Amino acid sequence: MNERIVVVGAALWHEGRMLAARRSAPPELAGRWELPGGKVEEGERPEEALVRELREELGIEAEAVERIPGEWPLGRPGYVLQVWSAKLLRGEPAPLEDHDALRWLGPGELDAVDWLDQDRPAVLEAARRPHP
């Protein structure tokens, strides 16, 4: 049986800029940048997982706004990335889990970091859409 595991990522916008998070683990991903997020747990909707993961990873309250069209395979069999645009409601993001740096990127700066390969198309698509 092929189990399909959805990982949600947040194109988190605040004041016209998108948040990028630099991985600190695992070693093969460390130092590269991603959209923050994580695995959808059993019985959880993707939007709920996104809000929970942002709370756990960054210590913020956010709202999932719109699913970005597309789905991207991740490095592990059965894992796929779905991305949602999101807006910051409360708090100042801090790298609490699996990250060692955060950076807000304006529209002209999105290629200033070394995004993980699977995040690149989602970042480009999120940047083309209206920001929440």
From TrEMBL:
Catalytic activity, reaction form: 8-oxo-dGTP + H2O = 8-oxo-dGMP + diphosphate + H(+)
InterPro entries on file: MutT-like, Nudix_hydrolase, NUDIX_hydrolase-like_dom_sf, NUDIX_hydrolase_CS, NUDIX_hydrolase_dom
CDD domains the UniProt entry points to: NUDIX_MutT_NudA_like (cd03425)
SUPFAM superfamilies: Nudix
Taxonomic superkingdom: Bacteria
EC number: 3.6.1.55
Pfam families assigned: NUDIX
GO MF annotation: an example: 8-oxo-7,8-dihydrodeoxyguanosine triphosphate pyrophosphatase activity
Domain Nudix hydrolase: 3-129
Signal peptide (UniProt feature, chain positions): none
Keyword Aminoacyl-tRNA synthetase: no
Cofactor(s) needed by this chain: Mg(2+)
Family of the protein in this entry: Belongs to the Nudix hydrolase family.
Protein name: 8-oxo-dGTP diphosphatase
Native source organism of the sequence: Streptomyces indicus
